[in-house]
Structures are given as C-alpha cells and as structure tokens.
Batch of 2 targets.
Target 1
Amino acid sequence: MTEVADAAIQPVVAVVMGVSGTGKSTIAALLAERLGWPFAEGDDFHPAANVAKMRAGYPLTDADRWPWLAEVAAWIGERERVGGGGIVTCSALRRSYRDRLRAGHPQTQFLCLTAEPDLLTARMENRSAHYMPSSLLESQLSTLEPLQPDEPGRSLDSSQPLDAIVATALALIRPGQDAVLRSTDAIPGSVGD
C-alpha cells in the first residue's frame, strides 16, 4: 500500500453495539487487537448507581443513560482529537443515543451485533463476572431501534463464526485495507459478551 493510500484512510472510532449477550466485548477486543487501536469497555463508563440498578434487575431509564452516553461520547471525541482510531462497546440501543455518540464525531461508525433471543439468553446465563441479568434482555430487545440506512454502520449476525464476524467488521471499519488485515488463521474462541 502506498503512502498516499495510507494518508487517505481516516482513522475511525467503531462503536460495537447491540443488546447484552451479542458478544460486544469479545468482538471489540479482537478488533482492537487486530487494528492496534485503543479499546474501551462502555460498561466501565457507567456510574455505580447504574450498575447497582442493573444488577438488581431494573432497566435503565433515559435519565440514567444520558450521563453515561456523554462519557462514551467524550472518549470518542478524545480519540478523534488525537487523530487515532478506537473501538468502544456501547449498547446504543436507540437512534437518539447513537445520534448523541456521533454528534461532532464524523468518523464514528456502528457495528450492531444481533442474534436470536434464545441464543442471547443462553449466553447471558452461561457467563460469569457480569452484572447484567438475563431478566433485562427483554427490556433491551424492546428498546433496540435497528440501524437506519442513513446511519454509518452495519448489522452483523453474532451467531456466525467468530473469525467471520471479525473479518467482516475489519473490512467495514477500514475499507480498502481488508487484504492487509485478513488472516488465514481462524480466531479461536466463542462469542458471548
């Protein structure tokens, strides 16, 4: 790849989004590793009160989410300010939440992970060390507004093999560099957020 081609590729911040159990953390960490970009776990931006509320089985309200989304947006803004790419997880369930994350951040892209509810429930019930109970999945699914055609991003089925998901995501995040980023080795592991 020539230097001119490299200069034309703008770093982006990819928001790996979707309901709980879609594999956001797994996919995002692999993308960050493959790209050599910083990775932020969106759950880490939640205030303690939000975490306690979810752990107790209560869904968050918009009032709970706005300060959290502001923190995630600030991280995105910092990545753009320094001129580097980044990967962050964030459920970003509603269009208005995604609009908040994109406001003033033109290089933001969304990768919306999806899967059937039964698979999501099974994943959530079989994971450890996460505060989100499977009882909140129905609330998240009813809140989720799919990506619209005018939003930068794409939905990916997270029931597919992990290496296929990552390869597709890499091609979306850095179009034109898929040959550079493609690996002949399958990525071990399973999805499960």
Target 2
Amino acid sequence: MVSTVLVLLGGGLGSVARFTVGGLVDRRLPGKYPLGILVINLSGSFLLGLLVGLGANHRLQLLLGTAALGSYTTFSTWMLDARRAEEDGEPALAWGSVLIALAAGLLAVWLGRVLGHAL
C-alpha cells in the first residue's frame, strides 16, 4: 500500500512539473520544434541517470524514477509532435526531432550516471 501511495504522489508531482516546465519553455522559445518536450525528456533522462548513478534504494527509485520521472517525461507527446510535423509536410523536422532527442537523451542519461557515480 505504501508503494502505491508513493507512486501516486510521485506521479502527480511529475505531471505537474512536466506541465510547468513545458509551458515555460514553449512560451519563452516558441517555434515549430518541440523544445519544451525536448527539455523535459533530456532533463528527465539526466535525472534518472543521476538517480541510478547515486545508487538510490528501491523505494527512492520507485518514488522518483518510476513515478515522478516516469510521469514527467513524455514519450507519447514527443511521438505525436513528430508525427504532426510529418503530416504538416515537414519530414526533416519530424525525423530531426526524433534523432536529436534520442542521441541527446542517451548522452543525458550517461552524464547523469557518471555524475552520480562521481558523487
């Protein structure tokens, strides 16, 4: 029961953080490229790598990793935006978004783990 409550609380916090960060980025840097989603997914990847690199215990990984960061990052919105760009006749934007986010996401999680191990 405690784990369920932790996931509920962490998921709620993560979704509010995603809404807040995405809105801030999109208002400050408007454009066709989904920068808000990129910032969310890269920061979430980095934080998850950091959490693992720090050797967080199971409960903390459940609360912060699965719940908070799982609801903070947004694979489905990222894919929908890429598909919409392709439908709007901008396949370079669509595929560029996917490739940039994948490469940068792998780098972000690696950097987080390296930093976590160093701390």
